[in-house]
Design a protein that fits this description.
The chain is an alpha+beta fold. The chain has one domain: Alpha-Beta Barrel (TIM Barrel). It is 26% helix and 32% strand. Bound molecules: zinc ion.
Length: 411
Amino acid sequence: MASSLSTKLRIAGSVLFASGFFDAIAGRFLWSPAARQATGGDDGAETDQSQPDRREWRDWAGAIHVHSTYSDGGGDIPTVMAAACESGVDFVLLTDHNTQRPLRDNWEEKYPTRPLLLIGTEVTVEAGAFLLALEMPPQWEPEKGRPPQEVIDEVIAHGGLPLISLPFDVKHPWREWEAQGCEGLEVLNLSTIARRHINLLSALWILPLGFFAGQRAALKALVTRPDAALARWDSLTADGKTSVGIGALDAHALMKIGKKKYAIPSYADTFYAVTTHVLLPSGLENRNDLRTAIHDAFRRGRCYFSYDCFGDPRPVRFTAKSGSEVAIMGESIVRIGSAVTLSASAAPGTLLRLFHQGHIVAESRTGSLRFEAREPGAYRIEGYKIPFRLGALCLGARPWFFTNPIYVRPV
Ligand SMILES: [Zn+2]
């Protein structure tokens, strides 16, 4: 009863104080002082073309965390995959609640080429929180309501990949941060972002926008930087531990208004809004090879996630060089000599921010950044679209993409 009351109070607070609305407004103003500019900044320096990584990667964008009629989604799997074709994503990760029946029904085999279909499940653990269980044996069926640590241990015992789902959900947030063995979390979750906007002020703004300009315009308007999840992610990696961050949807294409059900927002509109980009070795064509490579990219953090509603961010590069060694996002590199050279690049004009242990240590407004990292720890990049600038003030800023960290290790 007590937890039910606290949930109601939390939702009421969100509605009354309109925190999501104010976050969205405040996030459109960024301060970018010259003191933080790194090499490759606004001085017109040559953009960094000396990316040291010689390996070839294929960047695939995936719609992550999607529900179908196998649980509480509004559409069947052919509907989901038709939306994937329409929105142009390269793969879909279906995670129906507490079941792997679609995997046993061989739906993956019906979509062996782009867009590829991968199937995992979303497990409801104790206190209503959620855990994604990926790459599990088809016959495994989860049991609802068990302690998170038990479920994590079971997933690992089966060789699967456990990831915290909806960590900052308004109704059922993740509380077991001390649990061991979880490989990462949904740092960005579109459903959580949207729920934080269900309040009195945003209703005056989002509802008319959705009605007159369409669902995609409404989704773009409510986009915010996921501050709390990013702070938690940074704290998880602060002691050198690796933790994988992904961007997810929790797409249902189902909204109940009274007794009626509507496909709002549609699968295609949500797929258009947020994707996780995985970096895959080039040359893979076989479905099983691609499936393995995508899961491997999740496990290693060889990925970044983005608000694709502001445009396809590809290519996004983030590399590190130390002596003759190179690393990309998700990988570790040992510092040889006094520093590791970090390089990042994206579309020209993108504001790139380099974070170390949760703090901005460098940024560039040209879409290219280079930085000599002397301190060990986790370094990651955030990219922003900036339509207007007034000196150091960036106006109309929109968060665009977030890379997984490169981990600089001491000798
Ligand atoms: Zn879900």
